[in-house]
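User: Sequence in, structure out. Go.
Assistant: Echoing your sequence, followed by the structure tokens.
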Amino acid sequence: MGNAQSPAADPRFTSAIRAFSEKELGDLKSLFASLASQSQTEGKYISLSVLKAYSGIKGPLGDRLYDLVTQNRKDQKLTFEDLVIAKGTYEKGTRDEIDEFLYQLCDVNGDGNLVRSDLEAVISEILETISSHKTSEPSSISVFLDAANFTEDNEGSPEKSMSFEDFRNWSHLVPSARKFLTKLLKPSSSGSQVPQLIHQDIDSNMLLLKEEYAWHIGGALSHQELGEWRILYHSSLNGLSFNTFMGNISHAEGPTVLIIKDKEGYIYGGYASQPWERHADFYGDMKSFLFQLYPKASIYRPTGANNSIQWCGVNFSSDSIPNGIGFGGRANHFNLFISANFDSGHTFTGATFNNPCLSKSNLIYPEVIECWGVVPKGFQQDKQEGLKGCLCN
């Protein structure tokens, strides 16, 4: 295979190659041989266009990835040694090493300063890649961009850049972006990053859950939970009715995604890993989380500070057990709560999810409420096979 079997002079290659098993190394050699043969370089190098096609990205993010993998030589010759060194860091490195690689990757200009325009280009390309639409709306890009902070001074420039810590914080708030970026050199393992949204009876223009929002929420979930999401309740179709809501979601056999748009125009909600069932106290587990979708997009996972995860009060007469649904905090001072009248609620900061106030103010007045049922991959098939088994007995 030519260059792929030549001895390495770079000590980084010697170190990186030890991270791979014999089988993994064989797979890497096969991958290099395949990509190099497509590059029309007599099997010696991988071209820029072939690497971009392999990773699935076409714009400046793909150019930057090629520069990083070729160690910024600018010679348009991606060798087997380059591939091993890059994958050794990208796939086998520590969390810090991988984050440092991604941090440099997002600096698409390659000038050592990750500024707002760099991140904007990255987000735009990600959304165009995962979306079924040809172009991303500016508002869609801005919700993810506005979740980032740029706190580092740039010498000779009034524009601040994103520090490494800023980048890690942003990656924590927008885990879908990090998940996307960590799969560019192993696209065959990525699968679909956007759940299929099933909503036969509702015009998609009425839905709060846009495709990019589903991708954002899905960034905090496992691959299995990115199968089908089915609309269970929508206030524009079903009315702002708590009883109808509870009746509709009782058919859910898995987790649910609750989304609220209030009269201030803010959009936010929570992922409930457990069914919404009548309880006189908090319940649930650490798989649940809160999220913001507009005017900026962020995920807030449980901190472990307490077990005040889900709340579902139905037909209680005590003031200490408020009727409605919520997440986190404490009774009457939730991180997110919608009263059983479905006409008001509140959102407060709290230790449960370490979230800010999710709306413009603490008091919220819902305009639209919708809820989706998460159908994990393989669930429908298992269910159908189970029914077949019952019929055969």
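User: And one key feature?
Assistant: The longest strand covers residues 366-375.
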